[in-house]
Request: fold
Amino acid sequence: MLTLIKGGEVYAPSYMGKKDILLVGNKIGYIKDEICVPKDFVDINIIDAKDKYVVPGFIDSHVHICGGGGEGGFKTRTPEIQLTDITLGGVTTVIGVLGTDGTTRTMSNLIAKARGLEEEGITTYVYTGSYQVPIRTITGSIQDDIILIDKIIGVGEVALSDHRSSQPTVEDIMKIAAEARVGGILSDKAGVINIHMGDGERQLDFLEEIVETTEIPITQFLPTHMGRNTKLFIKSIEYAKKGGFIDFTTSSSSEEKKSRDTKPSRALKILLEEGVSPKNITFSSDGQGSLPKFDNERNFIGLGVGKVTSLYEEVRDAILDEGVSMDKALMTITSNPANILKLYRKGYIKEGMDSDVVLIDKDTLEIDTVIAMGRVMILEGEIIVKGTFE
Reply:
């Protein structure tokens, strides 16, 4: 199938101006100022992108595709995600994770769900493990999982500074990082450790100690939930200036949205003003994960569910409400996660890359059309492809 996107204004995510883009199957074939179709050539799908921005498909690097939760008992286990929960948010690549529950949610389940979503049309990868240490793997080894299982690109989400963690030592995390790093080197994968940051007082202490006392580079870690509280956010600025990657969670409860002073869109503006490299900042949704609420004594009092659609909502807010430039805002969900996670064919609009493309309305900045691996999933706001059980 050939698909021609005509007359759109391209952010790749850097600005390219008005271009025509020819998608050849699952790859971007040509990008030209104008691509003309011969009059007698009929086997081509033409999408009019006039008055649209054309951007790379979004990468969500932290999604509980099997569901998450359980902090309030078995009835609070959130359901598995559906395809359109993802594509309606412009996301064409997801990284699946396990969270608090590494018992009833298993690595076999996670990989099977990832393969199912890929059969339905999007690109998927996963992390091995969950909150718990020692890491529960498929093969019995972190290094072997990363090297031998194509879907596994790193470790996560390992919980630190959180009352729900396994309370690992610095040495525990050090050994996990070392094994993941070698696994990544030998398989040309990222081998990163996705760290769940809780709201405890230790914050980033473990990661900073490892970087200062070993040969493991700061780029081996991708700590998330960095806007969880103001103290952690302030600490993240210093950490990122040292070269560390920092990830901000876009899903939140309505109460958090009202009170949080580290909303990702706002945080992005502050980070850029503080001189943090725009290449070191990512957003992820925590989609389909539970959003547990605890009282001051750590008792469970309520639950929400994370939404993948929140990912682009925060990018849009950064542009419209905070005045962040479109290219820098888009980097947080396109080129940055692609580079950090070594997803070589993702995150850019460039000839030879995977044909993951999103069209955005220029006036409203709402998502208009979503194309994943050359297949139109959403067209002019309407769902074209549904998941198997939708």
Observations:
- The first strand starts at residue 2 and ends at 11.
- The domain at 58-340 is CATH 3.20.20.140 (TIM Barrel).
- The CA atoms of residues 30 and 115 lie 29 Å apart.
